[in-house]
Write a structure and sequence with these properties.
26% strand; 337 residues; binds zinc ion; 17 strands; 11 helices; alpha/beta; Quinone Oxidoreductase, Chain A, domain 1; 7-stranded mixed beta sheet; Rossmann fold
C-alpha cells in the first residue's frame, strides 16, 4: 500500500509499505482523507524533528472507513469514522484528573507515532468515532479541527450575548468564531490576510482588518469596557501584546496558538483588571462528540473551509504552497485518488 514518509526538513517521499495487521483491540481503516494543518507545516520545516522520526508517517486529521474491527468494539466494516489521534497512559496525574489529552507521556498520532498518510492504518478501536451520513468525506475530515474549537470555546465558557474577539482567522480561529456564534455570542475576528478576510465575511463573520487597530476597535465596540473573551490564535507577538488591552475586568484570555518562543505579555493589565488567562490545547472526548453534533446539525458550516484537495503524491508540493501563504484555508490529502 502507498504511504508518505517524512525524510527530514522540507522533504516528503511517497512509497509503499506492507499492509498492517491489526493488533488485539485494533481496527483496520481504509484512510480516505487527511487534513493538513499548521502543526504539519511545522513538521515540514523541521521544527518538530525532536518528535517526528525520519521515515515517519504524519497526518492527525483523519477520516476513513473501517475494513476490519475487533468483535464487541461496536464498529463494523463500512463504518465511516474519524480518529482521536492520541495515545495516553491512563495512570499519570493528568489522566487520573480526567485530562488524558494532557497526559504526561502523551503521544500524538501523526507526530510522535505513525499517522494517517497511509492507505491502510491499524488503530485502536477505542480512538474511533462514527461519522453521520449527513457529512460528506471532506466535511468529516474537518471534525478534528472543529473538536479543537469546541474544546477552546468550552474552556473559555463562552455564553449567550458575550462579546468575543478572536485574534487570527485561520481554520482554528474561524471555527472558534463559528462555535462561539452558535453559542449566541457576538463575535469579531482580527485578521490581516485579505483572502481570509473575504472568506470570513462569506461566513457572515464580522472582521477587523489590517487597517484597523484591534485595541481601539474593542474599546469602541464595548463602550470602553473591553470584551468578555479574547482568543489568541495567531502565534504572533503583536497579538499577544494587544490581547491584554481588549478584555474587560474579570474577562478571559485563551491562548490557543503555539508560541514556541517566550513573548512579552502586558502583565500590568492582567493585574489591573484581574484577568484570567488559560491555555487551550487539543480536545477531550466530549469535545469530539460536540463537534460531530454541531457539524451534523449544519450549525457550523465546514465545506467552505476546504480550499483544495491533493493526491498523496503531491504532499511535498502542497506543503510548499501552503507555506507560501497564498489564498488557502484548508488543504486535504485525498488518498482515494
Ligand atoms: Zn492539527
Ligand atoms: Zn497519562
Amino acid at each position: 500500500m502507498r504511504a508518505a514518509f517524512y525524510q527530514g526538513a522540507r522533504t516528503f517521499t511517497t512509497g509503499t509499505v506492507a499492509t498492517p495487521t491489526p493488533a488485539p483491540g485494533q481496527a483496520l481503516l481504509r484512510v480516505k482523507r487527511v487534513g493538513i494543518c499548521g502543526t504539519d507545516l511545522h513538521i515540514f520545516q523541521g521544527h518538530l524533528d525532536h518528535r517526528v522520526p525520519k521515515g515517519g508517517i504524519i497526518g492527525h486529521e483523519i477520516f476513513g472507513e473501517v475494513t476490519e474491527a475487533p468483535a464487541g468494539s461496536g464498529f463494523n466494516p463500512g463504518d465511516r469514522v474519524v480518529v482521536e489521534p492520541l495515545s495516553f497512559c491512563q495512570q499519570c496525574r493528568a489522566c487520573r484528573m480526567g485530562a488524558s489529552y494532557l497526559c504526561y507521556s502523551l503521544k500524538v498520532f501523526g507526530v510522535d507515532l505513525p499517522g494517517g498518510m497511509q492507505e491502510t492504518w491499524a488503530v485502536d478501536a477505542a480512538r474511533l468515532l462514527k461519522v453521520p451520513d449527513s457529512l460528506d468525506d471532506d466535511q468529516a475530515t474537518l471534525i478534528e479541527p472543529l473538536a479543537v474549537a469546541t474544546h477552546d470555546v468550552r474552556r473559555a465558557a463562552v455564553k449567550r450575548d458575550d462579546t468575543v474577539l478572536v485574534f487570527g482567522g485561520g481554520p482554528i480561529g474561524t471555527l472558534i468564531a463559528l462555535v462561539s456564534r452558535h453559542r449566541g455570542a457576538r463575535v469579531v475576528v482580527v485578521e490581516v490576510n485579505r483572502h481570509r478576510l473575504e472568506m470570513l465575511k462569506g461566513l457572515g463573520l464580522e472582521t477587523v482588518g489590517p487597517d484597523r487597530d484591534p485595541v481601539k476597535f474593542a474599546n469602541e465596540w464595548t463602550g470602553g469596557t473591553g470584551v468578555d473573551v479574547a482568543f489568541e490564535v495567531t502565534g504572533h507577538p503583536a497579538a499577544v501584546r494587544a490581547m491584554t488591552d481588549v478584555v474587560r475586568v474579570w474577562g478571559t484570555l485563551s491562548i490557543v496558538a503555539i508560541h514556541a518562543e517566550p513573548v512579552p505579555v502586558h502583565l500590568y493589565q492582567m493585574f489591573a483588571r484581574e484577568l484570567v488567562m488559560h491555555g487551550a490545547r487539543l480536545y477531550a472526548r466530549e469535545d469530539w462528540e460536540e463537534a460531530i453534533r454541531l457539524a451534523a446539525g449544519g450549525v457550523v458550516p465546514l465545506a467552505p473551509l476546504v480550499s483544495r484537495k491533493i493526491p498523496l503524491e503531491a504532499l511535498q508540493q502542497g506543503m510548499e504552497q501552503a507555506l507560501g501563504g497564498g489564498p488557502v484555508m484548508k488543504v486535504l490529502v485525498d488518498l482515494t485518488t
